[in-house]
Amino acid sequence: MAPEHDLAAVLRAQHRLLAAVGDHPDVNGVGIARGEDGGYVLQVNVRLGGARCDVPSEVDGVPVRVQAIGPVRKRPVA
Questions:
Q1: Cys bridge to 24: 40, 53, 61, 76, which one at CB 3.0-4.6 A?
Q2: Which helix H or strand E contains 16, and what residues bound it?
């Protein structure tokens, strides 16, 4: 992805990706992160050991990376 994608365009892509994969039981979250080139990427966090859902490699020209993570737990507020 070229770094010229503005945050508003990346947010629109995030909403489209969330609609596509957000209900999958192995998806823990869909967020925005910085890519290696300094631009934005979409990041899909999936459950470790889960059956990977069909995540596209990009949405509206914004790259998507998939990262397997451990369990997500709510933390108490300090």
A1: 53
A2: helix 7-21
- Name the amino acid, one letter, at 72: V
Q: Cα–Cα distance between 63 and 57 in angstroms, integer?
A: 6
- The CATH number of the domain holding residue 49 is 3.30.300.50
- What pLDDT digit, counting tens, does each position of 20-78 carry? 999 999 898 999 999 888 889 999 999 887 666 789 999 999 999 999 987 777 788 87
Q: What are phi and psi of 10, to 5 degrees?
A: -70, -40
**Pairing state between β 62-69 and 40-47:** parallel
How many structural domains compose the chain?
Answer: 1
Q: Global pTM? A: 0.81
What is the span of the domain harbouring residue 22?
7-69
